[in-house]
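User: quick one, sequence for these tokens?
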């Protein structure tokens, strides 16, 4: 099982990428937000000495453990949205660029991160600010 530090490192890496992907790629921003949340959650699960080997075991653990109720409430819809934009045609029908911040980051990612950090009170997480989405530049 990976330790929580390796998941925290991957969380930080994925989170920094959110600032660099142009909003004309909302499907990729949702995907990156999902994996950012996933690594924050995996850090918490490692902290709690819970081994996770797949999306299914992670989802089952989050769903069935009262400690993770708030996280599951925000993670499940982010997981679903991420699957839709990755696997269904025309991702722009599922998410618009202007919806990334209010409907993905503020609604799902930030609450997950805040809850994870509260449940790991003796761990120092790297400081981060809200994501500053970048607009695509014209050629």
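Assistant:
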């Amino acid at each position: 099982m990976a330790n929580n530090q390796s998941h925290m490192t991957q969380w930080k890496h994925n989170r920094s990428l959110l600032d660099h992907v142009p909003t004309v790629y909302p499907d990729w921003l949702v995907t990156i937000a999902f994996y950012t949340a996933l690594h924050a959650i995996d850090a918490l699960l490692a902290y709690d000495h819970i081994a996770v080997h797949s999306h299914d075991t992670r989802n089952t653990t989050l769903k069935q453990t009262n400690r993770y109720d708030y996280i599951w409430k925000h993670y499940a819809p982010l997981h679903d949205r991420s699957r839709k934009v990755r696997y269904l045609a025309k991702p722009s029908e599922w998410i618009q660029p202007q919806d990334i911040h209010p409907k993905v980051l503020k609604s799902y990612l930030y609450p997950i991160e805040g809850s994870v950090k509260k449940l790991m009170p003796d761990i120092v997480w790297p400081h981060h600010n809200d994501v500053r989405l970048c607009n695509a530049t014209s050629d």
